Fold this protein.
Amino acid sequence: MTVTALSKTLAAFLFIALPFIGFYAGLQYQKTARPPSAADPGASISFHYPEKVPATYITAAAWPPRVQDLHTPFSCAEKKILVQGREYCVVTTTEGAAGSLYTAYTYAFPRDDTTVALTFSLRFTQCGNYEAAQKSECERERASFNVDEFADRMAQSVVAW
């Protein structure tokens, strides 16, 4: 079997180019395969969150969400709820402004031997600002959007490292 100059050049090109092509493809896959994540700068925890709120008439007011290790045992003096069998202490604050309601949420929950708090704010458009068809669509979305389940999905991605 004869090795030609063309086959040597082609082999050298592939030997050099394929690792770079594989690295680039891996970066592109990683962008689409994993949601964005954030970490508490003062602690060793991180979590994943969606790039945007999965709704049309409900948008993020303070994004990305924040996660914080409170360094205390879990207890709840506020509203206690269960989501998918998991316990949360929820504190909300709502303010109105020019056709929208802004609600700040804090979901505190036990993680190992400490309490973790997830905080974010959502903007709820006043559905009454729209014409009949859009108003109905806005009201349906508002009725079907479950903030507790939305927060639970983020809270379940919290990882201590």
User: Anything to note?
Assistant: The helical segments are 5-33, 132-144, 147-155.
